[in-house]
Amino acid sequence: MEFNPMKTIAIIAPGYGASPRTVTEAKALLKRHDFAVRLPDDFLGDHPLHSHHDDARTEHLTEALQNPDIDAIWAFKGGYGSAKIIPALQKMQPPPKPKPLIGFSDVTSLHLYFNQHWHWPTIHAPVLWQLVRNKVSDDSINAVFDYLNTGNLPRHPLTPLNKTAQNTATITATITGGNLKLLQCSIGTAWQLEAAGKILCIEDVDEKPYQIDRMLLHLQQSGRLASAHAIIFGTFHDAETSQHSEEVTAILQHFADNSAVPVFIAASFGHGRKNLPIRLGSDYTIRHDGQNYSLCPA
Description:
With 298 residues, the chain is of the alpha/beta class. It has 2 domains: 8-150, 3-Layer(aba) Sandwich (Rossmann fold); 156-297, LD-carboxypeptidase A C-terminal domain-like (Glucose Oxidase, domain 1). Helix content is 32%, strand content 22%. The protein is built from 10 helices and 13 strands. It has helices at residues 20-32, 54-66, 86-90, 108-118, 128-132, 138-150, 163-166, 180-185, 209-221, 246-257; strands spanning 8-12, 36-38, 72-75, 101-103, 122-124, 156-160, 170-179, 199-205, 230-237, 263-265, 278-280, 283-288, 293-297. The protein has a 7-stranded mixed barrel with strand order 6-10-9-8-7-12-13. A 6-stranded mixed β-sheet has the order 2-1-3-4-5-11, sandwiched between helices. Helix 9 (209-221) packs parallel to helix 10 (246-257). The protein is globular and about 55 Å long.
């Protein structure tokens, strides 16, 4: 299928906001890369938690979804608040023109809804605030722009964490997932994680080791993980040290050792400086070439 470059980007802030100066810098960054930018006049409001009140944030996303001239939607920041928009999405019919939503972290709730209810692929990738604040690597930024211009997506090197993964030759399935805290919060909602028969990617930041263990336990006991084809852990960085703690490493390994599902780990996505894009809701393949494992678009 012929790929059409995505040249008009709508910026939304479904969770946290930031300073007007940072928003201006994000808009200028996109323009320097030859993208047209659509930004609501009332982008930032006076809500104590979020970038704006729920009705305004909902309207911004709805307008971006329904405007046929917009090719992609890029979240400005994560934080908290995206899930409050979902009740309005439930009342909408999917717009006729699918367009990728770009972001991660709190945006996980919207990724799950679009992937599972509208069957739209979305892009797990850095939010715009990170680009202008120099929070992510150049190769992560370039990979997102490359996707928007060419449709190409990078491979993710993997390391197997259990014997089931070591004995895996090839797995091809739809990929889903995102932030661990949001995946846990999805249970019992309209956007509840559906991982059966899929490759599930999981990452998080600034969670204490016992909290990570507890969230994984909850997902296991809820039955959300048992039928996944594979699980891939991304980074679980501490924001101050920018690395896994020994306790987190041990928790992920313990989880893998006690899982019947192939479990891998990757350093290429999450809240660290490297956060290469993944096209959620589309097919990916885990490959073993005899020496190395990798995750690639199918």
